[in-house]
Amino acid sequence: MLTEPADPVRALVAAEAALPVAPAFHAVAEAARARFAPAARAILLYGSCLREGDHRDGLVDLFVLVEDGAPGAEGALLRRLGALLPPNVYHLGTPFEGRTIRAKVAVVGLARLERLVEPTTLEPYFWARLAQPVRLLWAADPDVAARVRALLARAIRTLFEAARPLAGSHPAPLELFERAFFETYRTELRAERPGRATSLVTADVARYEQLARLCLAGRPPPSATEFRAATRLWARRRRLGKLRSILRLAKAAFTFEGGADYLVWKIERHSGERIELAPWQRSHPILAGLLLLPKLRRRGAVR
To answer: What pTM does this model have?
Structure first.
């Protein structure tokens, strides 16, 4: 069994990941584990349903971590696509207490994810999400659980260090994470209104204050050289991230049942913009998305 080093960030993550959640979340996690067996190695819960403690108003966000390259519920082509542009995203519904719980399931290899949360990874897609509160709902064995806790702690430190040079020489603890999430939102096509990064942090003030103190310990103020380098690097992340967001949406058209309706629901929920889809748009989500995107960006529904 892996021996976990004495890292205060990892200790915080371990305690947080083990916090109890509602039985409904475990029910949908078990359905996801069964669907992606035998390749599944761990199930993570994150996102708005976790923050709000409510699975009824939206889709439950899950990561299913699988053994890299192992056959399972995904075919060979989808596994290759997932390796080139992770994650593969699926829709999952499972009955629970007389209603259906719906989840958005992101599938990614465990070893690949360990690399994707490292500071050398240019795109923040994974380390931005996994730096937020996460629950480890299931792990195949204690070694897998230890690896998950390690990568969660790494995601937090990667996010923090990426944003630290932009936050000034003496920022308030919460300002660091607000700036971090603000910058990561700018690297994707997002439907959220301005202020979303602030609302993420204010939803769990004590957590982010504690993490900021831990991550700042022993760190000198950033230099002007670090600021300039970070500014250039975030500009590169925005260019790459927007492109990869479009490619992920196109890929999701082949994996996410009802993907067009989900995207419309998400845009409407976060932006307040009403969108009506024609039947042909539901049948051809990629073409519809490409045609809708410029209009939605002009209206400010997607940024």
So the answer is: 0.84
